[in-house]
């Protein structure tokens, strides 16, 4: 049973996850309730230009206009995450999730959305957990749960995000940021 709503928090892969798509990943939890959780991997840019897949959206990109690997679930679908100013509300294909983070309907006209957002990231797929699965993984030591900071969602250097998020934490989390990618080489 879920005890805390993790929506808007970050999941940072612990060294227990030593391979695969979640190795050194940083996940933004988009939604969490008693039925499960969904999130997106923030630090996995792909070698695919946004406009090659979704024409017109590349000019709204926050950072490099590339698609990101959001997770292994429904990898053949795209999800648009936007930075929304405080004054804007839902509408024009936009839905605020929390803070300045929202979703955009990618069937919307990018020109109509451009004045309403500060930037967009496009994700192929997402990460998903069934009821109780995420809580079990956290208890099992696979994930650190930490608060997000505004710059995390649209971090320009997503390759350093795992290290940067852990390094700013207090106590032992900061130490984990110094772990080598391959501990056997230590």
TrEMBL record:
<dbReference type="Pfam" id="PF02622">
    <property type="entry name" value="DUF179"/>
</dbReference>
<protein>
    <recommendedName>
        <fullName>UPF0301 protein GCM10009810_32760</fullName>
    </recommendedName>
</protein>
<dbReference type="InterPro" id="IPR003774">
    <property type="entry name" value="AlgH-like"/>
</dbReference>
<comment type="similarity">
    <text>Belongs to the UPF0301 (AlgH) family.</text>
</comment>
């Amino acid at each position: 049973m879920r005890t805390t709503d993790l929506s808007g928090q970050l999941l940072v892969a612990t060294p227990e996850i030593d391979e695969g798509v979640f190795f050194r990943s940083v996940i933004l939890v988009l939604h969490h309730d008693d039925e499960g959780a969904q999130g997106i991997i923030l630090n996995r840019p792909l070698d695919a230009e946004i406009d090659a897949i979704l024409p017109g959206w590349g000019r709204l990109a926050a950072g490099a206009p590339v698609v990101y690997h959001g997770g292994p679930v429904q990898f053949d679908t795209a999800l648009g995450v936007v930075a929304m100013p405080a004054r804007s509300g839902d509408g024009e294909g936009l839905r605020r999730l929390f803070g300045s983070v929202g979703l955009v309907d990618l069937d919307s006209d990018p020109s109509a959305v451009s004045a309403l957002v500060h930037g967009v990231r496009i994700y192929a797929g997402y990460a998903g957990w069934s009821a109780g699965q995420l809580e079990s993984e956290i208890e099992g030591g696979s994930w650190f749960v930490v608060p997000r900071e505004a710059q995390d969602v649209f971090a320009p250097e997503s390759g350093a995000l795992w290290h940067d998020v852990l390094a700013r934490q207090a106590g032992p989390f900061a130490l984990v940021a110094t772990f080598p990618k391959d501990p056997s080489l230590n």
